[in-house]
């Protein structure tokens, strides 16, 4: 029974994503989503108490489904730079995907609606920062990074990885970065980050 319930919920979320991306939040009705999901309006409301709740869950579900691969790269490994570069690359692949951009545009357009933007940030981009902060704290404890505020470090790393790419992808619909350029961007960002936050050499030690 739970399998059927999960399948029905996913069908509603998929239909909602299609409808919201096509017509926007205001012009999309719960009735239209129900029809697209081959369901009833009462069933849709049984899963989601309001259109706003459905909209928020649709955004968060898409992020959870398609960004998990990037977070998987944050496992603690002996080669910190390599792990962070893989994380950065997979994050950029996710961020630059047409579907991700379409959903991000929706989130920005509707973000001021009754705290929706704050909730989306906490469950989406904020979760990325939280997980990255946790991993960087582990690297600080292991001595791979100098002592400091891991949350601030996480914000710096995220900004370095993204650089100006989100703005260009959001505003220039013809721009689609290739995997090689995304890898180069992630690698350069991590190199700059490690140079900034590498442990300071001990007094009297040789400096290369």
Describe the structure.
This protein folds into 2 domains: 1-48, Homeodomain-like (Arc Repressor Mutant, subunit A), CATH 1.10.10; 58-197, Tetracycline Repressor, domain 2. Helices cover 74% and strands 0% of the residues. The chain has 11 helices and no strands. It has helices spanning 2-23, 30-36, 41-47, 51-72, 80-96, 98-110, 116-123, 125-142, 150-162, 165-171, 179-197. Helix 2 packs across helix 3 (41-47) and helix 4 runs parallel beside helix 7. The N and C termini lie far apart (64 Å). The relative contact order is 0.10. The model has no long low-confidence stretch (mean pLDDT 86).
Number of strands: 0
Helix content: over 70%
- The CATH class of the largest domain is Mainly Alpha
CATH superfamily of the largest domain: Tetracycline Repressor, domain 2
Shape type: elongated
Low-confidence segments, ≥5 residues, pLDDT <50? Answer: none
Structural class: mainly alpha
Strand content: under 5%
The total number of structural domains is: 2
Computed Rg: 20 Å
- Count of DSSP helices? 11
Order of helices and strands: HHHHHHHHHHH
Euclidean distance between termini CA atoms: 64 Å
- Average pLDDT, all residues: 86
- The CATH architecture name of the largest domain reads Orthogonal Bundle
Largest sheet: none
How is this fold's topology laid out?
Elements: H1 2-23, H2 30-36, H3 41-47, H4 51-72, H5 80-96, H6 98-110, H7 116-123, H8 125-142, H9 150-162, H10 165-171, H11 179-197
Keywords for this entry:
Arc Repressor Mutant, subunit A, Tetracycline Repressor, domain 2, 2 domains
Summarize the structure.
The protein has 208 residues and is an all-alpha fold. It has helices spanning 2-23, 30-36, 41-47, 51-72, 80-96, 98-110, 116-123, 125-142, 150-162, 165-171, 179-197. The relative contact order is 0.10.
